[in-house]
């Protein structure tokens, strides 16, 4: 009888042990599950709240960047001020609705009155008494106040305000809306706006189902909507606040609580199969880990987007600078040498403007792909902005190796690209720098690469240049000259015009060329070769050129000089209205057009655009003659003579200096003179410095001369006196 008792007791103990074990396991599972569920749900809710706030912030940035696609544009400035409603509809109004879904778009004049309105893709033309709704009027006034504070140059506010913008949520007609406002500014320095004359562009996006859907598609919100109050307990909400910090709406969505979802799914299974608690616990933890991984993946994707360029899919400037900093620190600790490349696509803007932004985007992607295919895994390719790329090369310390690499890279990038719109070919300029030559400092290295890039572009584009410490000095010198040149233009009194006489074969003065000089307060008298290139790059050529033209017209009008010749830049010729400015100065000095000649150098490419041709046509119709300076030193001399109907060609002094040298120069000069006779174009020989050169040119049939033999550059009084003594014969005149 003892055995049965013992057996029962053992069974009871076993059952009790099993029951206790199951109970302990169940309690442990419940406790761990409850703790894990709460932690995962709290983590998920916190992440969703961060994503929601980030979505609202990114929406505010997005609307401004979409506006600036069409508002930073020379044509936008001209068309808006001309109140071209059709153009505004196609670029700033209905187009914004079609392209980006903006509910309303306003174009606002300098008095903050709407001159154009697009609502839901339909254009409305406001009347003279139309006014902005009060919230938008306040927003416009806030931006103008910011613009006024930022403006340093009243004559041209664009550089100071181009990047200004405001975006905020507000109540518009009782409905919450996101409003973005930006100034309409030119994208090129040849067009300026005085402070206070800028027009504004307002874009409205209502906080509605469309905006909620956009948030949901990016951050995977479930059942998202905007509401006037926070959502119920099963939903999460974040406030949408106006400028005063007051909540004007709530972004509400169904909370994703993966812990609760899993508990709901697993509770029946756990209840029925308690004996398998350990296995079920492992399965539950695995499922919870999977849900958490999805949330972490979303965060990683957001972090990736913050550090990479969305168009090219490569690192952006932020990640690039971080990697460069790490590589330089590693090099200082004895790691591999570091080299930096700065690349710029040549004439990318022309392709973007002619073929459209989609073609430009496709070209950027293809160029990024080529760069990535040409580097190793340890290197970094990044898009630094626009058409500018950066490359970090690890383990390339030899400048000889670096030069070979850059040469191959230029060859690779210059290959034709097949775009959807057709095949295009583009080149790239590269500035390279080895970190070891610049003490391994990131700022100095990047400045050196930029200086080398500038030098490569100045040497003709489609080239590379390796930075040297001396190049940095040249780069700084150029910036100093640019700074001083701006001050000289603003203050005046530092420029003077000298005149070099031009004689015919009989010794009569038939014209004079105006030559500008800059009396620098420190560097002394500088010739045009020292600063005109910088003036062209910075837009300062406009005021300098017009000032020289004024001085030349005064001389021609007050002396008996038959003709005055003035140099103009292709930068001036491509600007709309240049011809009218020239003709206005002729009229102001009562000078007939045939007494003015404009010289264009062949060394800088002329723009074949409609504005250049139109300016030429208007000037020629008024009797102004056109001369092609430095003839036969460029690449398109015959095309220029044909396309621009040149009146005079000037043989470059380099050919005159080599006359009689037996290297073929004489034949080239004869060919130029034959070309002039065949086309009825007058030919002037520059740089005539001795009698032998003059006699040789006379023998070839040249009858107009300029050079030190005949007269050096002189001031206006001396030239007027010389002109009186050497009046041309009636036949020459």
How would you name the CATH homologous superfamily of the largest domain?
EAL domain
Average pLDDT confidence is 86
Largest sheet: 9 strands, mixed
The count of domains is 5
Number of helices in the DSSP assignment? 25
Uncertain ranges:
1-12
Q: Which percent bin holds the helix content?
A: 40-55%
- Strand percent estimate: 15-25%
C-alpha Rg (nearest Å): 37 Å
CATH topological fold name of the largest domain = TIM Barrel
The CATH top-level class label of the largest domain: Alpha Beta
What is the tally of beta strands?
25
CATH architecture of the largest domain: Alpha-Beta Barrel
Distance from first to last alpha carbon: 150 Å
Provide structural commentary:
The strands form 5 sheets. Strands 17, 18, 19, 20, 21, 22, 23, 24 and 25 form a 9-stranded mixed sheet that branches. Strands 3-2-1-6-5-4 form a 6-stranded antiparallel sheet, sandwiched between helices. A 5-stranded mixed sheet has the order 11-12-10-15-16, with helices on both faces. Helix content is 50%, strand content 20%. 33% of the residues are buried. The protein has 25 helices and 25 strands.
Give the helix/strand layout.
Blueprint: H1 2-71, H2 74-81, H3 85-91, H4 94-100, E1 104-108, E2 114-119, E3 122-124, H5 134-150, H6 158-161, E4 166-172, E5 175-183, E6 200-206, H7 209-219, E7 222-227, E8 235-241, E9 247-254, H8 258-272, H9 277-307, H10 317-332, E10 338-345, H11 348-355, H12 357-373, E11 380-385, E12 388-394, H13 399-413, E13 417-419, E14 422-424, E15 428-434, H14 442-458, E16 464-466, H15 469-491, E17 495-504, E18 509-520, E19 524-526, H16 532-538, H17 541-558, E20 564-568, H18 570-573, H19 578-588, E21 596-601, H20 610-621, E22 625-631, H21 637-644, E23 648-651, H22 653-657, H23 665-679, E24 682-685, H24 691-700, E25 704-705, H25 716-725
Parallel strand pairs: 15-16, 18-20, 20-21, 21-22, 22-23, 23-24
Antiparallel strand pairs: 1-2, 1-6, 2-3, 4-5, 5-6, 7-9, 8-9, 10-12, 10-15, 11-12, 13-14, 17-18, 17-25, 18-19
Helix pairs in contact: 1-8, 1-9, 8-9, 11-12, 14-15, 17-19, 19-20
């Amino acid at each position: 009888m003892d055995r049965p008792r013992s057996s029962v007791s053992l069974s009871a103990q076993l059952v009790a042990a099993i029951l206790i074990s199951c109970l302990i396991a169940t309690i442990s599972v419940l406790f761990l599950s409850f703790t894990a569920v709460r932690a995962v749900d709290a983590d998920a809710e916190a992440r969703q709240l961060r994503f929601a706030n980030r979505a609202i912030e990114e929406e505010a940035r997005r609307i401004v960047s979409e506006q600036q696609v069409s508002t930073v544009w020379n044509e936008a400035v001209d068309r808006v001020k001309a109140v071209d409603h059709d153009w505004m509809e196609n670029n700033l109004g209905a187009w914004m609705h079609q392209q980006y879904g903006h509910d309303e778009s306003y174009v606002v004049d300098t008095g903050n009155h709407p001159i154009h309105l697009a609502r839901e893709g339909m254009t409305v033309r406001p009347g003279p008494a139309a006014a902005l709704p009060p919230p938008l009027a306040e927003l416009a006034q806030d931006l103008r106040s910011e613009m006024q504070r930022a403006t340093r140059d009243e004559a041209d506010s664009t550089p100071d305000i181009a990047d200004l913008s405001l975006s905020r949520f507000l109540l518009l007609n009782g409905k919450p809306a996101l409003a973005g406002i930006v100034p309409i500014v030119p994208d090129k320095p040849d067009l300026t706006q005085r402070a206070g004359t800028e027009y504004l562009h307002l874009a409205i996006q209502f906080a509605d189902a469309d905006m909620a859907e956009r948030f949901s598609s990016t951050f995977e919100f479930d059942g998202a909507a905007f509401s006037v109050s926070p959502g119920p307990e099963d939903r999460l909400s974040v406030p949408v606040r106006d400028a005063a910090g007051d909540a004007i709406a709530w972004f509400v969505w169904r909370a994703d609580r993966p812990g609760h979802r899993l508990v709901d799914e697993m509770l029946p299974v756990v209840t029925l199969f308690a004996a398998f608690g350990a296995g079920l616990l492992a399965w539950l933890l695995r499922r919870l880990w999977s849900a958490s991984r999805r949330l972490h993946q979303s965060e990683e994707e957001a972090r990736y987007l913050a550090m990479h360029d969305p168009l090219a899919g490569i690192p952006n400037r932020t990640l690039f600078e971080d990697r460069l900093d790490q590589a330089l620190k590693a090099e200082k600790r004895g790691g591999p040498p570091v080299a930096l490349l700065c690349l710029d696509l040549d004439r990318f803007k022309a392709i973007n403007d002619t073929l459209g932004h989609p073609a430009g985007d496709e070209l950027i992607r293809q160029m990024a792909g080529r760069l990535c295919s040409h580097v190793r895994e340890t290197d970094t390719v990044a898009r630094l902005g626009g058409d500018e790329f950066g490359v970090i090369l690890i383990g390339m310390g030899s400048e000889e190796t670096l030069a070979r690499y850059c040469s191959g890279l230029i060859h690779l990038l210059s290959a034709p690209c097949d775009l959807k719109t057709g095949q295009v070919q583009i080149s790239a300029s590269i500035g390279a720098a080895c970190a070891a030559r610049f003490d391994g400092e990131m700022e100095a290295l990047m400045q050196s690469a930029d200086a080398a890039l500038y030098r490569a572009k100045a040497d003709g584009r489609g080239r590379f240049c390796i930075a040297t410490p001396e190049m940095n000095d040249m780069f700084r010198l150029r910036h100093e000259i640019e700074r001083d040149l701006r001050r000289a233009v603003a203050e005046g009194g530092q420029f003077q015009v000298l005149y070099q006489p031009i004689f015919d074969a009989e010794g009569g003065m038939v014209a004079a060329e105006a030559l500008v000089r800059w009396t620098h307060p420190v560097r002394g008298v500088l010739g045009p070769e020292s600063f005109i290139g910088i003036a062209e790059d910075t837009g300062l050529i406009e005021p300098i050129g017009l000032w020289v033209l004024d001085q030349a017209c005064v001389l021609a009008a007050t002396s008996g000089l038959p003709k005055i010749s003035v140099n103009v830049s292709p930068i001036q010729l491509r600007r709309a209205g240049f011809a009218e400015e020239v003709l206005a100065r002729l009229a102001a000095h009562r000078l007939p057009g045939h007494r003015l000649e404009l010289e264009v150098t062949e060394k800088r490419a002329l723009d074949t655009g409609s504005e250049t041709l139109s300016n030429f046509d208007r000037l020629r119709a008024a009797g102004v003659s056109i001369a092609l300076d430095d003839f036969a030193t460029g690449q398109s001399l015959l095309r220029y003579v044909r396309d621009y109907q040149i009146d005079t060609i000037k043989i470059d002094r380099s050919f005159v200096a080599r006359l009689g040298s037996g290297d073929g120069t004489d034949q080239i000069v004869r060919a130029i003179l034959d070309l002039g006779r065949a086309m009825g174009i007058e030919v002037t020989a520059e740089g005539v410095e001795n009698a032998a050169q003059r006699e040789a040119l006379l023998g070839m049939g040249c009858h107009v001369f300029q050079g030190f033999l005949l007269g050096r550059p002189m001031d206006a009084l001396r030239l007027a006196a010389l002109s009186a003594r050497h009046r041309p014969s009636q036949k020459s005149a």
